[in-house]
Design brief:
The protein contains 63 helices and ten strands. It is mostly helical.
Length: 1597
């Protein structure tokens, strides 16, 4: 099953589940099923017997002593039967299994009917035939929930009939009992044993609960006892910790009781319990990917350890003048913090290096390795653990840009290659695999539920069919005699008389209803009097007019625009205008409400949910107008932006978004919230006392950090932040005040659990297409139909006023168009479409225009397809065999200009024709294309040198100017040659030719501008746009992006509306509150107690305090535009913390901020992250997947790879399905043969892998501050390992001979061994300039993955191999997207260098990370590829005078803020889109690789080998072989199909079918042997046909 097959069946599967849950039998059919014994023989299907209830009316039988004896007899009989089965070695599949629909905790199936109320909470005989012999009984609780208990005596004392046990069962199953336990657990979060009595109360309560469970179920002996349920283990932990805490102080271990207690919340609700169990099940499938993640992270940590160990301790130390004296203590001088150089505003000293491309120290300072590591010593590569933590930080994208900055400052800019080629791909590999496995697991769960629903629906259909036949037979038998017919007529007449009487009774009741009820009903329905009914009818006609809806839509949009125009500061006249506008719109919407109330009545009005929403908004707006002077109620203004959501009534895409938000309310969201609550309480219990006792450690002013766990609200906010993936800074603070191990364990558990829960919720919302489509079908194109009706209604009304009839021309045109579309749809159906899945028609209604466009696109007569066929004319012309150029101009040009008709057979025309042929030969030659590609790359590379230092290099400047002229001339000649060769007609039908033409024109105009003195440097960055036209991989990705644009535009419009809503709320909440009084000298904010507002700050400025300044945060909410920018930073950058801090500290307009005075403003940002980021991302990805699905369905292949790469993928898949050692022939010499068997044996390979692992362990134990003795020991171990690898190489080169170098892993081993030997002599040089030579031994770990391929018959190894195989198969698509990645980074680096080279050093822009040179620019752009930290680069660009200086020499250090916003916003959007596609590619390939056909496919070489061996034993070419020759034949095969002798017993167990004459078919032999090679559990229904076709394709017998 591919991902798109699963995706296309989502709606069908959900509808199937909904139908399966609604299956019901009518009462007559249920009575017939339960009471008629003749129906049962008709349902003797084996799968139906276990689903049907017992025959007879007594379906539910009370559990009595007689029942217990019968159960005991059945149990003894089954024990004997199982022993017999075991003696016969029967498989587990033949044994009886429990019925899935009668599991504990599920509702009673409908076919059992409704049990009598007196049987609830009463022991009954088990309904499942499997448990009828297992000594159990069932009890039905409220809601007909099945609860199963052991029939043995509880604790050997209380039988099932004991009154005490019966009372315990009723108490346990009573709803009040669960509610009481739930309230007690929730109260724990408030009380938390603050009073001594509370602890004893809780202890008694939970001991009573456990006692009730033990009495009701038994303790541990038998099924369904207390300890057999893992949920009851929580009670044991709670009671044990409470008891132990009476005598021993548990300290932080007491948190186990808290977590266990809060986990019990899930047991109080059956739905939550099932949801948690469903979430735990997929975790078991993550074992392989978790092990692979830990393994790969360890490898990356070893690489980081060897490259960067100890470099982050480099600091700039002031050089003392007393270094030559004997009293100078160098160690104390270098470890003293006051001797370090600090950048203002940074708590850590500057990290430096001694290489040419590292951070340089200022004058008077030297770079020395001294002191501790940055960030309290927690950021380093000094040991394996800290290196692993750094790589985990890099993988989770948690402030990773800070890690890269520190590393590049100390190691050098050239080490960016390590991040780009090792760390980033490795982390992406792990994240993509984790995401793909989770998606696959969820897909398997969905498919399993769908299969179960299909089975239930089929079985229900068979039951109904049998019951209907039986009813028809009974009805026909009753209607045989006339007496029976007369009786039936009498019964019908009696029923009719009864119905008539009931109608008269209802009329009498209505007639005699009290007057007050009648008046109330008439008032609610609006039927008071004739005048009111007339007014109601007129109002109804008015509101049903399409023009009314159009006016309301326009009013909503205009009202939203006026609300968005609010800003700070506003002029008084503008403010009054907005007030008047709001009053007008309040009146309009109030009038709309009143008119609808009159037209529909109160009863009809409030039946529509949208009307309720409108009513609430109108009431709030009226309250806001009436209470405008009340300051505490001024927040009612924030409800005005909610009016924009009324557009969802007419806007299908916005309606879909709201449905996604509404669909998130369920058990899974509740589980997520409870988990956050649980971790918040647990964190507060773990670290609350530590934060209070050690508050001075993380801060010098002894103030709690913003993210702490001292109270519940801060703990809740911190856990939410960790769930969002940012835990590093909080972890550092925690490690400063508490134990390191406890902090790391707690935060990592919270991070992993939170990420998995959020991912499951995201997938749950992604796979709910059925609800969204159904809701959208009701509202699809409502706005379009309203506009259409309005366009028809307006001219119709005008013509009516003139007394003439109006002919609806649009309707006629639409009818013709519909007929044409129907004709096109019918005529475009071909045989190719018959093989496609019919599920592709199940698309959302808003996708209909795309689908119709596809139908038209597939029509051959369509002009769009003709244009598409010529899109890549330059590349396609290479494959043409003729060299005859086409016409230069189109037919219209020949008609308009007859002189263009030239006779090419003679004279000048022939010369012209020959010249065109010569030009065509030139442009089609591969050398010409290669030369043009070289010139394009050379012109792009020339842009690298145009930095700010070019003015100081006159020679290079002249060379670049001359190169620009040469490049322009070459491209001009290329264009002229293509014009002559292809003609204008064909040249300008190619998009890429158009692009080259436009870029050349821009280049020519820029050259003319340079001659006239105008600067056109930024336009040179357009040269890079020529690159995609010459690389097919980039063109494929760009084509997919172009196809996505229409659907992405509608989604982006919805996202803009949602963000506009939050922007307007942000303006209402924070406009004018992000200002502060600043001390430029100390670079700190004035305290609230010193300066309270703007007037006091200006009074200080009037007193000539030059260091005082009143500033505003760069990113604020003073207007909607800045609010959009701030929200974009909130959603994509790690700089959102500063915005949140400013909001939390804000007080009133123009007031000085105060620390966390407005603490509950955190909730605004939490709501935006959830709704504005999480749900919008879900909608965005949904549309991307739909678009890729349509594109792949349209072209029938992978959309991200070229045809050549498709062939490469098939070759790779074939190579991966083979064993590499099979091609090496075994030597004939006995000694060499023995050596060959030794080195190619599995045990030898395992031994070498163990040695490699030991080598990795040796690398792991290295540390920066290790002793000399430890270094000597590790050195000698390294020598021994090199010797072992050298011996291995010698043995293999002797045994394998020249075939040794045919294996890629052998070549890696040889290179690593060579470098290791060289490193023994040049270790010092390599370590100084590169890294330790022992690092190359990490490359040997590739043999481990090859070993997984050798152990393909082991499930764990096969799953690891499948993950690696899937990622390898996605490499071509990843390479294409990666090329586009690099092109975008390169282009934006050039643009940034041309526009922001002179920006003032501030925030993240400094002497290393800036846009002054291309190297610095590309480092800066790489740093923000994951949307991290780009706010720090944008902030200096946003500076305007006086924050930047325009008086400096041209061009100053100010930039254009608008250009900066557009630059970074477009860059972030492009990269988000490409990153999503990267993950989608890996998921698609893993889905394809997981299918048995792909994962376990045999190659043609294996089949060819089988055929050749068969020919040796059957020269006649027959398809059968004698059974006596089978042993020799199987021994003569080669691996992996070979079964070596002695193989008689193995062949006997194959159970091959025999033909007459003791003959066996070749296909039976091949099928059986390949089944042994493949996994026995990965069957494929098409596998036999595949073998037969492949075998006959090779050599037909």
């Amino acid at each position: 099953m591919s991902f798109f097959d699963f995706w296309s069946r989502t709606k069908e599967r959900a509808a199937l589940l909904r139908r399966a849950n609604q299956l019901r039998l009518n009462p007559s059919q249920l009575n017939l099923l339960l009471g008629n014994s003749e129906v049962r023989p008709l349902l003797q299907d084996e799968r139906m017997v276990s689903l049907l209830p017992p025959v007879g009316m007594e379906v539910f039988r009370c559990f009595t002593a007689v029942s217990k004896e019968v159960v005991q007899q059945r149990h003894e009989a089954e024990v004997k039967e199982r022993k017999a089965w075991k003696h016969q070695k029967a498989s587990e599949k033949n044994l009886r299994k429990p019925a899935a629909h009668l599991e504990t905790g599920k509702s009673l199936p409908f076919i059992y009917g409704v049990p009598p109320p007196q049987l609830l909470n009463t022991p009954l005989e088990d309904l499942d035939p499997f448990y009828q012999s297992q000594k159990t009984f069932v009890v039905l609780s409220k809601g007909n929930i099945i609860n199963r208990f052991s029939a043995d005596s509880s604790c050997y004392l209380l039988s099932p009939f004991n009154p005490l046990r019966t009372l315990a069962i009723k108490t346990l199953l009573h709803p009040f009992f669960s509610t009481f336990i739930l309230l007690a657990i929730l109260s724990f979060g408030v009380l938390r044993f603050n009073f001594p009595v509370v602890k004893y109360v809780y202890m008694a309560l939970f001991m009573f609960e456990a006692l009730v469970k033990v009495v009701a179920r038994g303790f541990c002996v038998g099924r369904f006892t207390f300890l057999r349920d893992p949920w009851n283990w929580l009670d044991i932990i709670i009671i044990s910790t409470l008891l132990v805490s009476q005598f021993v102080d548990l300290g932080k271990f007491a948190v186990l009781m808290t977590i266990s207690l809060l986990l019990k919340i899930f047991t109080c609700s059956q739905g939550l319990k099932k949801t948690v169990e469903a979430l735990v099940q997929p975790v078991k499938r993550l074992d392989c990917v978790i092990i692979l993640t830990v393994f790969c992270l360890s490898i990356l940590a070893i690489i980081g350890l060897q490259f960067f160990m100890g470099i982050l301790k480099n600091k700039c130390v002031i050089w003392s003048m007393n270094t030559n004296t004997t009293e100078f203590d160098f160690h104390n001088h270098t470890t003293s913090p006051e001797n370090y150089y600090y950048i203002p505003g940074h708590p850590d000293p500057l990290v430096c290096g001694n290489q040419s491309d590292t951070e340089r120290c200022p004058d008077g300072f030297n770079c020395v390795k001294a002191g501790s590591n940055p960030n309290f010593g927690y950021t380093s590569y000094d040991s394996f653990f800290w290196s692993l933590m750094s790589l985990f930080r890099l993988m989770m994208h948690d402030f990773w840009e800070g890690l890269m900055q520190l590393t590049l400052r100390a190691a050098g800019k050239s080490y960016l290659i390590v991040f780009l080629l090792v760390f980033f791909p490795g982390c992406f590999f792990l994240l993509s695999l984790i995401l793909a496995v989770v998606v696959m697991t969820r897909a398997e769960q969905e498919e399993a539920q769908g299969a179960e629903a299909i089975q239930r629906e089929e079985e229900f259909g068979r039951i109904v069919e049998v019951l209907k036949r039986r009813e028809e037979e009974q009805a026909s038998s009753r209607a045989e005699t006339p007496e029976q017919q007369d009786s039936l007529q009498k019964k019908k007449s009696v029923a009719g008389i009864r119905a008539t009487k009931q109608e008269h009774v209802k009329e009498a009741e209505e007639h005699h209803r009290p007057l007050c009820c009648t008046c109330t009903d008439a008032f609610l329905k609006g039927d008071c009097c004739g005048c009111w009914r007339w007014l109601k009818q007129q109002s109804h006609t008015f509101i049903m007019n399409p023009f009314f809806d159009l006016v309301i839509i326009i009013c909503i949009i205009v009202s939203t625009i006026f609300t968005a125009m609010e800003h700070y500061p506003m002029m008084e006249e503008f403010s009054e205008t907005l007030v008047i506008a709001h009053l007008v719109f309040h009146g309009i919407f109030a009038a709309e409400m009143i008119i609808k109330l009159v037209a529909m009545g109160l009863h009809g009005y409030f039946q529509v949910r949208w009307h309720i929403f409108d009513f609430i908004l109108v009431i709030i707006s009226l309250l806001q107008l009436g209470l405008a002077d009340v300051e505490s109620l001024s927040l009612l203004r924030i409800f005005l932006p909610f009016r924009v959501f009324r557009l969802a009534r007419w806007w299908p895409m916005l309606h879909m978004f709201l449905k996604i938000v509404w669909a998130s309310v369920g058990n899974l969201t509740l589980v997520l919230f409870i988990t956050v609550f649980m971790f918040s309480v647990a964190g507060m219990q773990l670290f609350q006392s530590d934060y209070k006792a050690n508050v001075c450690r993380p801060s010098y002013d002894c103030q709690l950090p913003r993210w702490h766990m001292e109270d519940f609200f801060h703990s809740f906010i911190l856990v939410f932040r960790v769930f969002c993936g940012q835990c590093l800074e909080s972890l550092w603070d925690c490690m400063k005040v508490s134990n390191d191990g406890v902090c790391v364990t707690f935060f990592i558990i919270v991070l992993i659990v939170g990420k998995l829960l959020i991912l499951h919720l995201f997938l749950n919302l992604l796979f709910i297409n059925d609800q969204l489509v159904d809701s959208e079908d009701k509202t699809t194109n409502t706005l379009q139909s309203t506009m259409k009706q309005t366009r028809t209604w307006i001219p119709k009304s005008i013509w009516t006023l003139w007394g003439k009839n109006y002919a609806d021309q649009d309707h006629k045109g639409d009818t013709k168009k519909d007929n044409k579309e129907e004709y096109l749809a019918l005529s475009s159906v071909s045989s190719d479409q018959l093989t496609l899945d019919d599920n592709h028609t199940n698309m959302a209604a808003w996708e209909a225009p795309v689908a119709m466009a596809e139908i038209e696109f597939r029509t051959p007569e369509n002009a769009q397809e003709k244009e598409t066929q010529h899109c890549d004319v330059i590349q396609k012309l290479k494959d043409e065999t003729h060299l005859e150029p086409e016409d230069c101009c189109c037919n219209r040009c020949h008609v308009c200009c007859p002189f263009l008709e030239i006779d090419t057979s003679q004279g000048t025309g022939r010369v012209w024709s020959n010249f065109r042929r010569a030009c065509l030969c030139i442009v089609q030659h591969k050398f010409f294309e290669g030369f043009i590609v070289f010139i394009i790359l050379l012109s792009c590379a020339a842009l690298v040198f145009e930095d700010i230092y070019l003015e100081h290099r006159p020679v290079l400047q002249r060379v670049l100017k001359m190169a620009d002229l040469v490049f322009t001339f070459v491209f001009l000649v290329e264009m002229l040659l293509k014009w002559v060769a292809f003609g204008f007609k064909k040249y300008f039908t190619s998009f890429w030719c158009w692009l080259d033409f436009l870029i050349l024109n821009v280049t020519l105009f820029s050259l003319m501008g340079n001659m006239l003195g105008y600067t056109s440097q930024p336009l040179r960055a357009l040269r890079t746009l020529r690159v995609p036209s010459r690389f097919k991989g980039m063109r494929v990705v760009l084509k997919v992006l172009a196809v996505m644009l229409p659907s992405m535009f509608s989604v982006l419009l919805v996202i803009l509306v949602i963000w506009l809503f939050f922007s307007m709320i942000g303006v209402n909440l924070f406009a004018g509150k992000f200002s502060y009084c600043y001390n430029d000298t100390s670079e700190e904010l004035f305290s609230f107690y010193v300066v309270k507002n703007k007037s006091e700050c200006f009074s200080l400025m009037d007193l000539n305090f030059s260091e005082v300044n009143w500033k505003t945060w760069t990113f604020n909410f003073d207007n909607v535009g800045m609010s959009f920018l701030s929200l974009l930073i909130m959603g994509t950058s790690s700089g959102w913390m500063d915005i949140m801090y400013a909001a939390v500290d804000s007080r009133q307009v123009e007031d000085q901020p105060r620390y966390e005075i407005n603490m509950y403003m955190y909730l605004y940002f939490i709501c935006f992250i959830i709704i504005g980021c999480f749900f919008t991302l879900n909608l965005f990805i949904r549309v991307i997947i739909d678009t890729i699905h349509q594109q792949r369905h349209k072209i029938g292949k992978h959309v991200f790879v070229t045809d050549q790469q498709q062939k490469y993928l098939r070759t790779i898949k074939k190579r991966f399905s083979e064993k590499l050692n099979n091609t090496v022939p075994r030597p004939q010499n006995c000694c060499l043969a023995w050596l060959f068997d030794l080195v190619t044996g599995l045990y030898f390979e395992i031994f070498m892998v163990v040695v490699i692992f030991f080598n990795m362990v040796v690398l792991m134990v290295e540390t920066d501050d290790q002793s000399v003795e430890k270094s000597h020991v590790l050195y000698w171990i390294y020598l021994i390992l090199v010797a072992i690898f050298l011996v291995e190489f010698i043995l293999k080169i002797i045994a394998l001979r020249q075939h040794y170098f045919r294996n890629g892993l052998h070549i890696v081993d040889f290179v690593v061994l060579t470098l290791s030997i060289i490193g023994l002599f040049l270790a010092d040089i390599l370590e100084k300039y590169f890294c330790s030579p022992s690092l190359f031994s990490v490359m040997r770990l590739g043999r481990l993955f090859a070993l997984c391929g050798a152990f393909h018959h082991i499930r764990f190894a096969r799953r690891i191999w499948m993950l690696i195989m899937g990622f390898v198969m996605s490499l071509p698509a990843l390479f294409n997207i990666g090329l586009l990645f690099f092109l975008i980074v390169y282009t934006f680096s050039i643009i940034g260098m041309f526009n922001f080279a002179y920006v003032k050093n501030e925030m993240m822009i400094d002497d290393m990370f800036n846009f002054k040179t291309f190297g610095n620019s590309i480092i800066s752009m790489t740093m923000i590829t994951t949307s991290s930290g780009w706010a720090g680069l944008l902030s200096p660009i946003m500076n305007i005078s006086p924050d930047c200086d325009l008086r400096l020499p041209d061009p100053g250090n100010c930039a254009n803020p608008t250009v900066g916003i557009v630059f970074f916003s477009s860059y972030i959007l492009l990269f988000c889109l490409l990153v999503i596609q990267l993950f989608i590619v890996v998921i698609l390939e893993l889905f394809n690789t997981a299918s048995p056909e792909d994962a376990e496919m045999l190659s043609d070489d294996h089949l060819q080998m089988f055929y050749e061996t068969w020919r040796k034993f059957v020269p006649s070419g027959s398809q059968v072989i004698l059974y006596s020759e089978l042993a020799d034949f199987c021994d003569g095969l080669q691996d992996p199909l070979r079964i070596p002798k002695p193989n008689t017993i193995k062949l006997t167990h194959l159970n091959l079918p025999l033909f007459p004459g003791d003959q066996i078919s070749c296909l039976d032999v091949l099928r059986t042997i390949t089944t042994q090679v493949r996994s026995p559990e990965t069957g494929c229904k098409h596998f036999d046909m595949f073998l037969k076709l492949c075998f006959l394709k090779l050599k037909p017998l």
